[in-house]
Amino acid sequence: MAITGKADPGRVIGFLPLYRQVKERLVRRIADGEWQAGRAIPSEMQIAAELGVSQGTVRKALDEMTAERLLIRRQGVGTFVASHDEDRILFQFFKLGRDDGRRVFPDSSVLSVGEQPSDATEAARLGIRRGTRVVRIHRLRSLGGAIAVSERIVVPSARFAGLAACDPVPNNLYGLYAERYGVTVARASESLKAVACPPDDAAHLGLAPGSPVLAIDRLALDLDGQKVEWRVSLCRTDQFHYTSDLK
Amino acid sequence: MAITGKADPGRVIGFLPLYRQVKERLVRRIADGEWQAGRAIPSEMQIAAELGVSQGTVRKALDEMTAERLLIRRQGVGTFVASHDEDRILFQFFKLGRDDGRRVFPDSSVLSVGEQPSDATEAARLGIRRGTRVVRIHRLRSLGGAIAVSERIVVPSARFAGLAACDPVPNNLYGLYAERYGVTVARASESLKAVACPPDDAAHLGLAPGSPVLAIDRLALDLDGQKVEWRVSLCRTDQFHYTSDLK
DNA sequence: TAGTGGTCTAGACCACGAA
DNA sequence: TCGTGGTCTAGACCACTAT
């Protein structure tokens, strides 16, 4: 047993409850690719025996990881590492929907892909040095056949070798990041503004230049909180809307 | 003891785990005003003894209620009913912030308050019959001195008797709903669009008519999921932005 | 039927805050 | 010092799924 069992009274600084120590170890197994997306992890009893803690302690760690959508539990079957399948993307990472309420997965058509040195803005957003190479993707996304979004994506080349040469670039990028590069997008932070649509995007979206569009600026983070991807999406909101639940 | 102890095997339909039954009872005590906002509730042991269940079962109910922000736990002190103080509003219900990152509580200046029969749109959004009387409030909100939002609020008069005569209308409306009317806003659903600003709102916001503004359409629900309030906020986003965390 | 996660209990000890 | 919530354990039984 490598984890200190009961909290030793001498340690005051850096104390972590046992179940948090267990959780950190298990998260690391996902981050390191030891446990892969979509696969079952060992049973609670097996993990408890391996780490020398009680089942209840393992359960509390798994409960938190489930709440953070890192795991999916299926009664009678087992516990699985969450994958970026379309359902998860749709409910966790794609907030734009049709006004008629139908939720559909967006289609994509790629306009350009390339690898270049990062400019100052990209470097600042991604926390890298200016000039560090990045992959840039520009694509249109449609909902139910109607073009809705003009989207520009930037990722550091270092973590995504060969992405620029990928043909075709898949629709579900987060799934690709996980499967091909072992990078798990765990959460993202979005900043929204209403802006006047620039002429070239307006042409792609079928709008008059200057029309109001919703600009979504998103920074995606991995399991360690490292910045993985920056994307800016310009969205038509005449037939679509962005949903945000406050709770 | 009124709660059925162990799950009786005969019941298949409508089965609820014991801790969920406990939770429903405790939520009801808040909804009924038996436990008031900001006040301490009995200790876990007291609740467990009263309901004839173990402390662990009560704890699981309280854990869920804490996760839903209905309760606030303070180690060594007790468990308290969450109140709509400025901190909670700021983090849970107010997503607009300054671009410089400073988070401040918005000021309000009321333009008009009145009670009238509801129109078709209001009735549909609030789930009431058209013509049922509602209170309408129109106010401007500013962040750090700069006017940022033109906001129109509609609530059914039935649940908020005398609200239209309230002078002044307080800045923190959800706090008023709770204290004066016993109505707890538990969660809200927002729908966002970028729109061209109408002339009268543009004048209030200091914008040219037709400028892009963020339109936030919010429906607020109480503890029972009943529709409490509908509000539409038109927001300048030249110096401000709406934050949405996906996780 | 076997194995998984889900629920419930009981009791121990710890950390924290107030008096 | 006392009472609170926080952590950890151990064991029992239930519900669900696959075989």
UniProtKB/TrEMBL annotation, chains A, B:
Gene3D superfamilies the record matches: Chorismate lyase-like, Winged helix-like DNA-binding domain superfamily/Winged helix DNA-binding domain
rRNA processing in keyword set: no
GO biological process: negative regulation of DNA-templated transcription
Record-level Gene Ontology MF annotations: DNA binding; DNA-binding transcription factor activity
Annotated keywords: DNA-binding, Transcription, Transcription regulation
Domain annotation HTH gntR-type: ranges: 16-84
Lineage: superkingdom: Bacteria
Pfam families: GntR, UTRA
Protein name, UniProt field: GntR family transcriptional regulator
